[in-house]
């Protein structure tokens, strides 16, 4: 590894806020910055929010909690994450998450590719767009285009 190689300077200092499933979302790194090798998504999510039960076919997903708490649910288990905690979700394993506690959580979602970031870019809207119910048929079709499968609601 060359530790003296120059650091990429094409990284933006500010990233546009989007709304993904109505949530404040920032694609911090995606295909353009990483050559499709990595993505970093930041979200602020209210207590009680549950992601769909889903699976990534082409990339692993990791979760890091900056503020608040969340449960990461995978087949056979549930892990409660607090601020500063990390969880890893391998590709091909159905999973989802729920924001726990009384307040919102600020989280980072990281994937070992950019399919998830591409999916969010395609299905999110500018932050000033009025809220609307998600179009599930559109989300499912977009997920399939980006090597994701939306499997249904989060198991209880």
UniProtKB/TrEMBL annotation:
Any single Pfam family the record assigns to this protein: Cupin_2
InterPro entries for the chain: Cupin_2, QDO-like, RmlC-like_jellyroll, RmlC_Cupin_sf
Residue stretches making up the Cupin type-2 domain: 43-109
PANTHER family per UniProt: PUTATIVE (AFU_ORTHOLOGUE AFUA_8G07350)-RELATED
Identification of the protein by name: Quercetin dioxygenase-like cupin family protein
